[in-house]
Amino acid sequence: MIAGDVADALPPNDELAQSFELLADLLQLDGADGFRLNAYRTAAQRIRDSATPVAALALEGKAKQLDGIGKTIEAKIVERVETGEIAALVRLQTAIPVGLVDVMHVPGLGPKTARRLWTDLGVEDLDGLRDAAEQNRISALPGLGEKSEQRILESLARPRADVGADRVLLGRALPLVERLIAHLATHSACERVSEAGSTRRRTETVKDVDLIATSNDSTALLDHFVAFPSVAKVTAHGETKATFVSQDGIAADLRVVSPECYGNLLQHFTGSKAHNVALREEAVRQGLSVSEWGIEDADGSVTTMETEEEVYAALGYAWISPELRENAGELELARRGELPALVDSIRGDLHMHTTWSDGRASVEEMAVAAKAQGLKYIAICDHARRLRDGRLAEQVAEIVAANDRVSGLRVLSGVEVDIRADGSLDMPSELLAERDWVVASVHSGFQDSREKLTTRIVAAIEHPSVDCIGHPTGRKLRQRAPYDLDLDAIFAAAAATGTALEINGQPDRLDLRDVHARAAAAAGVKIVCNSDAHSTRALAYADFAVMQARRAWLTDEQVLNAGSWREVAPRRAGASR
DNA sequence: GCCGTTTTCGGCCCGACTGTTTTCAGTCG
After folding, report:
1. What superfamily does domain A348-573 belong to in CATH?
2. Å between A154 CA and B4 C1'?
3. Under a CB-based contact definition with an 8 Å cutoff, are residues A353 and A381 in contact?
4. Distance of A508 CA from B1 C1′ (whole Å)
5. Picking from A34-48, A65-79, A350-364, A493-507, which range would have the lowest pLDDT averaged per residue?
6. Long-range contacts formed by A126-135: CB under 8 A, 24+ apart
7. Tell me, what's the pLDDT at A4?
8. Which is the CATH superfamily of the domain at A4-95?
9. What pLDDT is stored for residue A136 in this prediction?
10. Which nucleotide's C1' sits nearest to the alpha carbon of A32?
11. Could you say which DSSP state residue A481 is in?
12. Distance (Å, rounded) from C-alpha A466 to C-alpha A516?
């Protein structure tokens, strides 16, 4: 374990990943070998996806054990920790204007063009790019024309994207996917249609929405696609593919493909890129060449497949659930036929609010809605601070009454308590002990040190009445970074006490995130998938928690509320209390 | 820069689209 003061100084994974991505971008502008750039980008992704701080691993010489990180990159991480910078990165930053990286990322531009704009026109950043385009100096360059110049100006006119701001929450993208599939499926020219891309993999945010379809009349189907009611702008409309931007700013893409290689195409367009690259590399070692059009053997004959199952089978794999396709070990297990049976649904929702605190629906309304969704039990977890001065007793009476009126669903008396700055909880222990289910969460002091926050949460985990830690890292997607925690210490304490950790299904939380939930479960921690609903409609957020659990490789056994309340409840009578 | 049931050297997925070309480089996923 790293001592607190040293750990505080360690760069977080996200910052390290950014450094290597910048290094790759600058090297690319510098004309470096593409495979070298790829190595840095792969390493950056590995670092970002690691559940443990890679800086700490590097200091112990263990970062090399991560796939894609070798001794050179490990040495650079150590250098960053010990000197505060990476010399190679500093050198490049002085040789190449850093603003040129933004220029390179303008859609349609790339490293070669960006470098030419710099050397030939003196463009060093986006402002310089705008000036050059407005003065028609770009179209004067050989190989670039008026269309290029116009497209650059259009790109620059859009609001400057903050980190992740150009990505859309899965919770916004999936409803669009469902409506689009329904829209396409009703058309007579539509034979088969499927979601693809990152929405099919259920990643927490997506860049756009991808669909594929087969059709006996692709022109008619694509016309129907771009006639979707909420289209704001059609950006491409060809014979096999169309793209539009919806009124709420989400880009949607439909490709019409031929039926005989539907399986190859679905597999290809589902990705991820890393998964497909690894799949194809392995295929090459077997003398096969994989593309979206089929699998070519050494003799040059191409076999096409109508289903994904056939594609994977032809390469020696069991079919892989899209949520797992991130090149995170799934190919190896699929080859051995040892993929986990992923959790499919939950039987109870153990975190929701009512009008007794900040929810919009009554206890009974939540119960009726939950029953309609097929749930067998729910825990009403209003904020403890709103249940003082006798209100708790009144709320409990309403829960008892709801149990009488709603059959086939058990309504549990739960609570969500704040974990205070000193690690204590904001409801007296004797009242906590009477609750059926206790969620403890951090709602303040997000800026506290890593050591202090970790100590607070571990104290809550060790409290005999606490069953679960709510939204454990406190992040809000695109709004707020997670607070600084020693997750290994949290996981160890949770495993030791049998306290569960939540995957909070609110689309802007999804907290724990996938790689952390996977690491927690691997450490022996039970996971609970909750909606944290504040209205009846928001009960559906539990589905997003389950999607996240599947991305975390979790099985029914690892998700506590995939079981019945009878299976969950004995924990409370266990020896730890 | 990474990696290794052929290898510590010599590989590293594959194809489509775009704009500007007249055979292709650059970009994208």
Report:
1. Metal-dependent hydrolases (3.20.20.140)
2. 48
3. yes
4. 36
5. A34-48
6. A126/A99, A126/A102, A126/A156, A126/A160, A128/A99, A128/A103, A129/A103, A129/A156, A130/A156
7. 43
8. DNA polymerase beta, N-terminal domain-like (1.10.150.110)
9. 87
10. B1
11. P
12. 21
pLDDT digits (tens, 9 = 90+) for A468-497: 999 999 988 877 778 888 999 999 999 999
Q: Using one digit for the tens of pLDDT, what is the confidence trace for A309-347?
A: 999 999 999 999 999 999 999 999 999 999 999 999 999
Q: Specify the pLDDT at position A61.
A: 92
Superfamily for domain range A261-336: DNA polymerase, thumb domain (3.30.210.10)
Q: Where are the domains of chain A?
A: 4-95, 99-157, 168-257, 261-336, 348-573
pLDDT band at A572 (very low <50, low <70, confident <90, very high): low
For residue A555, give Cα distances in angstroms to A266, A342, A544. Answer: 25, 5, 16
- Name the most confidently modeled range: A58-72, A370-384, A446-460: A370-384
CATH no., domain A99-157: 1.10.150.20
Look at residue A283 and tell me whether its pLDDT is greater than 50: yes
A144 C-beta less than 7 Å away from strand B: yes
Burial class of A135 by CB neighbour count within 10 A (0 to 12, 13 to 18, 19+): exposed
| A305 membership: H or E segment, kind and range | none
CA A115 to C1' B18, in angstroms, rounded, equals 19
Euclidean distance between CA atoms A538 and A534, whole angstroms: 6
> Which residue, counting CA atoms, is nearest to the C1' of nucleotide B24?
A143
Q: Residue A264, Cα to own-chain centre: how many angstroms?
A: 25
Please write the tens of the pLDDT for every residue from A255-279.
998 888 899 999 999 999 999 999 9
Same fold, A4-95 and A99-157: yes
In CATH, what number does A168-257 get? 3.30.460.10
**Main-chain dihedrals φ then ψ at residue A438, nearest 5 degrees:** -125, 120
CA–CA separation, A97 vs A103, rounded Å?
A: 10
Q: Which residue is nearest to nucleotide B6 (CA to C1')?
A: A285
On the question of pLDDT at A210 being above 90, the answer is yes
| Strand B reaches within 7 A of the A110 CB | yes
